[in-house]
Amino acid sequence: MDWPLKILFAAFLLAAAAIHGAQGDAMITGTVFCDQCKDGQISLFDYPLRGMKVAVACADSNGQITMRKEETTNWFGNYAMTFEGTPDLSGCYARVSGGGPGCGAAAGPPKNLRLMFRMFETEMYSVEPLLSEPAQPMSFCSRSSTPVPAPVTPVTPPPVERPPVARLPPMSPLPRFPPMSPLPRLPPMPRLPPMPPLPPLPPMPPTTFFEASACPYKNWTMPEYKCYWKAVSPDMKVAVVFGLIAAQRYGTDMSLWKGLQGRGDPYRTLLREATTALLNSYNSVQFPFHPLGVIQDTNWALMGSTRHVLHTALRFMRANAGYGKVSCKFTPCK
Q1: Chain centre distance of CA 121
Q2: Which of 195, 197, 231, 319 is deepest in the core (most CB within 10 A)?
Q3: What is the per-residue pLDDT across 4-36, written as a single tens digit (0 to 9) for each?
Q4: Helix (H, G, I), strand (E, B) or coil at 33
């Protein structure tokens, strides 16, 4: 046997032994939204909820709870929980078990777990978005989105015989009053002194939310553009923003500001462009990616191959460059 074939065979044996000895886990991920219109659907007015408690429970054939775990959603309404080993989660469901600040008066219906993939004794489950509702629908919701109660058939009461009404005597004519004398004329009003000139309004802060804008990562690292960091701050951790899968890859101490400095490695390049795309999505409503879409695509890439990581980083990089058609609308902060 040639030396290259011997080395390849030995590497295969080592990889097979490592895979066989790995302990599998079952991971469950999902998102909680505030159903402001109480219509049971996710619409334009709904938004992710942070600080909501989500419980995953498993029941046997008799309806008895055999396993239960609870987690709290992060800033973007996401939650993730892990079960050690590979338990049978076919009879499990997820539901909102506790309210956070704001929209948390009532919880929506529970949702079943959906198996995404199984590989090397590791299972990945996803849950359709869970809903939490306020006590009453918001005033801006249309009537069609609010549940309409069933029509009530009115009951016609039996006719009631009324006694005849006595006729009143005719009224006597009112006496005529003498004509009123004309009112005296009022003196003319004095003229008011002229108002002093108003001071000029302070300059408005820069905003590009309704404009098409796409800025590369170098612009987000410049001190004169720090005021455009809105929904997230440079010191926020990557694990908090992108979730558990990103924490396993980049650790729990990596900040967004440090993630913008990454280069030379496919995974560091993905984090740099994903962070830039997340900032651009919060800065311009016309950016091609939604904030939740950026987080979801990043996590899918981290669970795939290196080629998938490079492909996703290239997609974010092209969007951050405006596809050669949209420029960066930044102006120096005051």
Answers
A1: 32
A2: 319
A3: 444 434 444 444 444 444 456 788 899 988 888
A4: strand
